[in-house]
Amino acid sequence: MENYNSLGKVIWFTGLSGAGKTTLSNNLKLKLEKDGIPVIQLDGDLLRESVHRDLGFSQNDRKENVRRTAEMAKMLAEQNYCVIVSLITPIEAFRQMIKNDIVNSVDCHIVYVKASFQTCQLRDVKGLYEKEKAGLIKNFTGTKSPFEEPLKPDLVLSTEESTIDQCTQQLMNQFFVAC
Ligand SMILES: Nc1ncnc2c1ncn2[C@@H]1O[C@H](COP(=O)(O)OS(=O)(=O)O)[C@@H](OP(=O)(O)O)[C@H]1O
Ligand SMILES: Nc1ncnc2c1ncn2[C@@H]1O[C@H](COP(=O)(O)OP(=O)(O)O)[C@@H](O)[C@H]1O
């Protein structure tokens, strides 16, 4: 096991649907697990299918989704897991709530997974942008529901300019320095 400063840490990915949050979370998890680090992933899509099934996409529900996830992340990080969260987290006040009000007992880093709306629309990984065009989705992030650009993220990863491996390396360099 590499001796990283990795225990009790939350890496929180914010970004539009299709920006690359899940892909980078999966890649980072593989890399850390190879080095023997205990990792837990909390992914918006999966949480919404299970414990957050009662929540929709109104601003209040999104805030509650973020709040509950942050409480879980804190609990797990306090037990020395490295917790990787992928949630759109569209509002700056939500991001401040995570860092200042909830996950304040362990290292918590907000990472902006950056890709333009146009790029995400072209990627359209899950066909949601197509559905949105057809008027089939309520409160879609980036059109009917706002996505505020993060003001003070701890790291910005441009998934238009860097490859998946380059982004993962940037995460490792910034947050997992071997000691
Ligand atoms: N209206 C609307 N807007 C945005 N996204 C939608 C919507 N409806 C369903 N989905 C799917 O839900 C995933 C986003 O959920 P999150 O929990 O990450 O959102 S939030 O942080 O509460 O804003 C998101 O996952 P990602 O594509 O991985 O971001 C979508 O698959
Ligand atoms: N540098 C990169 N980082 C992450 N994803 C990338 C990158 N370059 C291209 N992609 C592609 O963009 C898409 C991102 O989808 P996904 O990870 O599901 O986004 P999100 O979880 O933010 O909705 C994937 O098809 C992925 O292969």
Number of helices: 7
Give the full name of the CATH homologous superfamily.
Answer: P-loop containing nucleotide triphosphate hydrolases
The amount of helix comes to 40-55%
The CATH topology comes to: Rossmann fold
Q: How large is the share of residues in beta strands?
A: 15-25%
Describe the structure.
This protein has 179 residues and is an alpha/beta fold. The protein has one domain (9-168): P-loop containing nucleotide triphosphate hydrolases (Rossmann fold). 42% of the residues lie in helices and 16% in strands. The chain contains 7 helices and 5 strands, in the order βαβααβαβααβα. It has helices at residues 21-34, 44-49, 59-78, 92-102, 117-123, 128-133, 164-175; strands at 9-14, 39-43, 82-86, 107-114, 155-158. A 5-stranded parallel sheet has the order 2-3-1-4-5, with helices on both faces. Helix 1 (21-34) crosses helix 7 and helix 3 (59-78) runs parallel beside helix 4. The model has no long low-confidence stretch (mean pLDDT 95). The structure holds 3'-phosphate-adenosine-5'-phosphate sulfate and adenosine-5'-diphosphate. Residues 17-18, 21-22, 44-45, 48, 57, 62, 65-66, 87-90, 126, 128, 137, 139-141 line the site of 3'-phosphate-adenosine-5'-phosphate sulfate (PPS). Adenosine-5'-diphosphate is lined by residues 15, 17-24, 86, 113, 123, 125, 159, 162-164, 167. Its EC number is 2.7.1.25. Keywords: ATP-binding, Kinase, Nucleotide-binding, Transferase. This is Adenylyl-sulfate kinase.
